[in-house]
Each structure stands twice: as C-alpha cells, then as structure tokens.
Amino acid sequence: MEISRHTMTRPADDPWPGYLAGRGHPGARRIGAGVEGVVYRLGEGRIAKVWTGRPPSELTRRVYADLARHALPFATPEILAVEEHRGVTVTYERELPGTPLRADSAHEEYERELSVRLTDTLVSVLRGLASVPGTDAMRRLTVQGDDRPLWEGHDRFQDALAALVTRSVARHGAALAARVPGFEAGVARTLQALRSLPDGPVTVIHGDLVPPNIHVDGAGRPIAVLDFGFFTTAGDPAFDAAVTAAVCDMYGPHARRHTDGLTRLFARELGHAPATLTAYQAAYALTTYDLFGADDGDGHFRWCAEQLRHNDVFGAGSAG
Hints:
Elements: H1 16-22, E1 29-34, E2 37-43, E3 46-51, H2 58-68, E4 79-85, E5 88-94, E6 99-100, H3 116-129, H4 136-139, H5 157-177, H6 183-196, E7 203-205, E8 214-216, E9 222-225, E10 233-235, H7 237-247, H8 255-270, H9 274-288, H10 299-309
Antiparallel strand pairs: 1-2, 2-3, 3-5, 4-5, 6-8, 7-10, 8-9
Helix pairs in contact: 3-7, 3-8, 5-6, 5-9, 6-9, 7-8, 7-9, 9-10
C-alpha cells in the first residue's frame, strides 16, 4: 500500500483513530493513503493499515515470511496481526524505515538525466530481490485484475505469463486495439516471444518498483522495499527489471528516454537480454492496461497503449 503519493490530513469524521485508541493505541495518527486503504502510525515501530481494497491474505503473510528468511540489505513488510471491524480488514505491521527514493512521476517532473544515485539504487534493489528464490506461496498468488493464481496449470513463468496475457486481452482488448495499430498481430508476436524465452532462475518478483516504493536512508542507500502485491509472484527476475525500467518515470516529459536508458542499464548490469526485457514490457502493458480504467480517461490505460506502440517485440513501434 503506497502512502507517499498523497498529502494526508485527517478528516473530521475519521473513526479509525478512535477505534485504534480503543485497541490500545491512543497515539494513532493518519500518515498516508493509497488505492488499497489508509495507514496510521501507532508508535513503537508499528503501523496499522485499514484496507478498502483487496486485503492481504494468509498467503500474503507467508510470502512476507519467505522474504524475511533471507538476509536482504533492505527491510520488507511484516504483518504482525490481522483483525476485522465491521467487515473491514485491519492489519498491524512493522513500520518500514526511511523516506521514499522519489515522488511518483505523476506528481514530480523527473529531470532529463536520472541521477546515478537513483539508478544505482534501482540496480541494488533488483539485485537483492533476485537473490530470493521463488516459493510455493509466491506461485500461488493472484496478480491484480486476474481471477486465478498466475502459475495455476503451468510449470514455467513464461508460459504462465503468456496465459495471463491471453486472459487479460480477452477482458477489454477491443478498447486497447482501437488505440494501438496492428493489435492482434502484436499480441501474437508477444505471446510467441514469451513462450520462446528460455528457462532460467525463478525468484521473487515485486512487480511495482516505482521510486516511492523504495525507501532510502539519509545517505541515499535503499533500506526498505514496500508495496508487494500488485504484481508480486515468482518468476524470471528479468521481468522485475523490465517493469522497473518502464514504470520508474511513467508520465514525465522524458519518460521514453528514461525507459530506454534503464532498459539498457539493467541489461548490462544484471545480465538480461534486451529482447527479453522488451518482451516483458509488452506483456506488462497487455496485462495491466485496464486495471484502473479501459478508455482514454485513465492515465495508465493511455500509458500502456503508448508502451505498445513503441515496443519492438510487439511490433507496432513504427506505427504511431
């Protein structure tokens, strides 16, 4: 649950601080919110999250525990307790340290040249996550917008992702096709590319490593990674690198330049084939395009269409 994209003030009718006070946390203070709910600082290194979106499941807690078993150079979420109040899920969690690496590009214009501090941090986090083996709990997760565990019926991440592309395109693909020339042929090329990718390591995938989801200390070192869940699964670490390159700057005037530059950087520093990263970027656009809206009124929908029009594997780069 990302909390850094919004400036938070406590509404006069907010009932949750009173509820949390009654549960033994009299100093509860609202500190942020995201699409999934609202966050309150409790003190003593703990927070409470009041979920309005899909709450974390016992499976999510298992994934967090799987992550905690590895000596990563940064903290990851830990759910300490879960309860319900009037049908609303409340989780009590460890408060993660640090401050966001950067604000979201929807709210802060990124400069033409990304800083070495930012790019080094992204490489460090990707390298750390790629050291965590994928687990059964990770394979059983369902990504946002889908109705079944990603790996269900599949032995390879690449094939599971191709099946997800097929399901996602079946939802509202006609809306995307109206914005992207050669859509059906591009989907076919993407599916062929995914299924042709070789087997490789299977590690944890975060799936939403935008700068606000990485916290750094005063020296700029990454000390916490939060907001697992949007596209968290087990799979090829190249997928996380590809998505991170694409979503670091989604809406700024230099977004395409940044995506291209980060894609080249991650290929070089992390040893991923550039064509593999490009195929995964097409797959990400095809599987998330309608999660917030399925027309031009939604920024993420427009962004996905733009990604596909310029994606070499999808094949529509010269059209538009």
